[in-house]
TrEMBL record:
It comes from the Bacteria. GO terms for molecular function: ATP binding; ATP hydrolysis activity; transmembrane transporter activity. One of its GO terms (biological process) is cell division. This is Cell division ATP-binding protein FtsE. Its main location: membrane. It comes from Oceanobacillus jordanicus. The lineage of its organism: Bacteria, Bacillati, Bacillota, Bacilli, Bacillales. InterPro entries: AAA+_ATPase, ABC_transporter-like_ATP-bd, ABC_transporter-like_CS, ABC_transpr_LolD-like, Cell_div_FtsE, P-loop_NTPase. SUPFAM superfamilies: P-loop containing nucleoside triphosphate hydrolases. Residues 2-228 form the ABC transporter domain. It is found in: Cell membrane. PROSITE patterns: ABC_TRANSPORTER_1, ABC_TRANSPORTER_2. The keyword Transport applies. Part of the ABC transporter FtsEX involved in cellular division.
Length: 228
């Protein structure tokens, strides 16, 4: 479902972040993206939701070459992809409910359907009782749960998370991982960039290591492989 063939990315300032990457990720896989800072992990992830365009090479998501699609078709692509960030990126003036409903309102779902879906995903992440809170009234872990709920409310086929536990304490991080495993168990593909040796070495999944813009390792049930 995600097929990259010899992908390069050179930014406008001349920095080459990816130097010829080829990868095949199937529907339902759970993949960790690891590697040193500056290796190209975020660039790899941003290519998949067309936040950045490849300089060279093809990226097929469900057989569509997303490097070629027109700007106006990007929102359609993103309906199939939920994205989760280290810093949550919630809208501070909206309630938890509104932050999640927003993603459905832009695709013009009926109010009844929106209500059902939002409460379903809030239930899944264990935050039904906080629907009326604003982000500032929640702990970091709870805010990340809201961002996960927002990412999955459209039932995307792929969830991409860029260091989702980077700002969270260990206990909270394990809870977030449990939620990702539940989402993955329903058939959603998960790609997660992480610096957490503990998580990668405990919850064993496919590990793709990126170093200097190249794939250095790609292992089934792999190890984190770095000291920090
Ligand atoms: P990682 O996520 O592994 O830390 P990144 O993909 O963020 O790596 O960065 C890879 C390289 O690309 C780094 O040298 C970084 O400085 C550079 N880079 C990332 N984003 C940009 C950008 N928007 N413009 C220019 N260079 C960038
Ligand atoms: P953490 O242990 O992650 O630091 P906090 O101490 O920030 O968590 O929050 C603990 C609980 O208190 C959370 O359930 C959060 O929703 C609630 N809470 C925190 N700040 C506020 C606030 N300003 N108003 C209402 N509830 C709050």
């Amino acid at each position: 479902m995600i097929l990259m063939n010899d992908v390069y990315k050179t930014y406008a300032n001349g920095v080459t972040a990816l130097n010829g990457i080829s990868i095949d990720i199937k529907q339902g896989e759970f993949v960790y993206i690891v590697g040193p800072s500056g290796a190209g992990k975020s660039t790899f992830i941003k290519l998949i939701y067309r936040e950045v365009k490849p300089t060279k090479g093809s990226i097929l998501i469900n057989d569509i070459n997303i490097g070629d699609i027109k700007e106006k078709r990007i929102p359609l692509l993103r309906r199939d992809i939920g994205v989760i960030f280290q810093d949550f990126k919630l809208l501070p003036k909206l309630t938890v409910y509104e932050n999640i409903a927003f993603a459905l309102e832009v695709i013009e779902e009926s109010p009844r359907k929106i209500r059902t879906r939002v409460m379903d995903v809030l239930d899944l992440v264990g935050l039904k009782n906080k629907a009326r809170f604003i982000p500032d009234e929640l702990s970091g872990g709870e805010q990340q749960r809201v961002s996960i709920a927002r990412a999955i409310v459209n039932n995307p086929k792929i969830v991409i998370a860029d260091e989702p536990t980077g700002n969270l304490d260990p206990d909270t991080s394990w809870g977030i991982m449990k939620t990702f495993e539940e989402i993955n168990a329903r058939g959603t593909t998960i790609l997660m960039a992480t610096h957490s040796k503990e998580i990668v070495n405990t919850i064993k999944k496919r590990v793709i290591a990126i170093e200097d813009g190249l794939i250095a390792r790609d292992e089934h049930r792999g190890d984190y492989g770095y000291e920090i």
